[in-house]
Each structure stands twice: as structure tokens, then as C-alpha cells.
Amino acid sequence: MNLTDLVTGGVGSKAIETISKITGVSESKAKWIVAAAVPLMIAALNYNAKNKGQTENINNAIDQHSNSGILDKIGNLFGQEGDNQTGSEDGNKIVNHMFGQNSEVVAQNIADKAGLSSSQVTGVLATLAPIVMGYLGRQKQASSGGGIGDLIGSVLGGGSQQNTEPGVLGGILGSFLGGGQEEPTQERVPASTGGSMTDILGGLAGSFFDKSTDGQAKGNILDSIAGMFAK
């Protein structure tokens, strides 16, 4: 199991098909939404565990969703007969814990790229978030131990580094998820220099959350993230 499966494989394909039906966008655009949003969620969890002292809380949340059966009922999570849900209360809480004060930034920038309203994307994010936690829970149950970093590293192993755009790599996922004042490192590193998928995704996410990054650049970064996992 890896993130490519969650984005475009058996799990992701069900979410993509349902998002397309509910929002009215093409399946290719729904695929982009999932491929941009889900890795950003993973990056946020990784940052929060490593830098905000939330490891125990994230572990508890993953365990809580590991036996929920949510991966078996994805098609029922987005409403029926064109009903645009605003997402479950649990899902909205997870999104807010993931992105903090940047939740609206994520929703608005994905909405701008996808041609949807921010409220539609907010509902999609709130439905995707428990799926991500359930997926991580299943992966954790199948693993032989290790911390959040090891778990996320194993999930990210399915990404394709070659699909990332040169020039936007490097740096770390900075303080923007938590609203801190530190400035992130914004080194420009060619794609050929390598680096773990966790670091690459973290660099892209850090650039996305940089308050000095304009809307067009944020959209390009989302394209880069989506391109890492959607083929």
C-alpha cells in the first residue's frame, strides 16, 4: 500500500468517481483534486507530528480510524443524487487539525484551480480526511512498528519523483501550518539531486504555505504535487 494507491488506485478511484458525480466536474479534474489534496494532508500530518508535538494525538486519531471500515464505504460518503455535503463533523475537525489557520487557503486555492466553490472543496476535503486517516490506520496495522515518520515514509514510497518540476524542490515544511513566525528555507534544488519523497513533498508544501507565494504560484505548486502521484 502506498500513496499512489490511495490517490489513483482502488481506494482513490472510488473517491474520484464519486467526487466527479457530486461536484459535476470531469473525472480528470476530480483526479487532480484528490492528487493535490491528499498528499498535502500527508505533508501536514508529518509536519505536525515532527514540529508541533502532535505525535500522540495523530497516532490516536489513526488508531481510531483504523477499524472504522471507512475504506469500504467511500461511495456513500459524498452524499447521494447530487447532494453536495459539507463534510462530516469528524472530517472537518481533522482538516482543521491538519491545516490549522490555513484550512481556508487550501480550500480556496484548490477551488480556484478546479473551477469549484470554496464550500464545495471544503466538503470534499472533509470527506477525504477520514479516508486518509483510515488508510494510514490500515497501513499502521500492517507495519512492523516505527513512528509517524516511518509510517508516512512507507506510504510516500509510491510517489514518482521524476514527475516533479525542477526548480521547486528543496526547503522544509515551514511554520506556516502552525502560524509561526519562522521563515522556511527556500533553497532551489534541481530534481536530479534526489532526496526522499517526504522531503520533496515537504518542500513543495512549505512553498505552498509561504505567505509570500502568490495565487498563481500556489496553483503551480498544487499541479506539481498532483503530478507526483497521479498518472
Order of helices and strands: HHHHHHHHHH
Helix content: 55-70%
Number of H/I helices:
10
Number of extended strands: 0
Principal-axes geometry comes out as: globular
Termini Cα gap: 17 Å
Radius of gyration: 16 Å
* Percent strand: under 5%
- Unreliably modeled segments: 80-85, 158-194
Task: Label the structural class.
Answer: mainly alpha
Mean pLDDT over the full residue set: 76
Largest sheet: none
Give an overview of the whole structure.
The protein contains 10 helices and no strands. The chain has 231 residues and is an all-alpha fold. Helix 4 packs across helix 7 and helix 6 crosses helix 7.
Q: Which key phrases capture this entry?
A:
mainly alpha, globular, 231 residues
Short description:
The protein has helices at residues 3-8, 10-23, 27-51, 55-66, 89-99, 103-114, 118-142, 148-155, 197-209, 215-229.
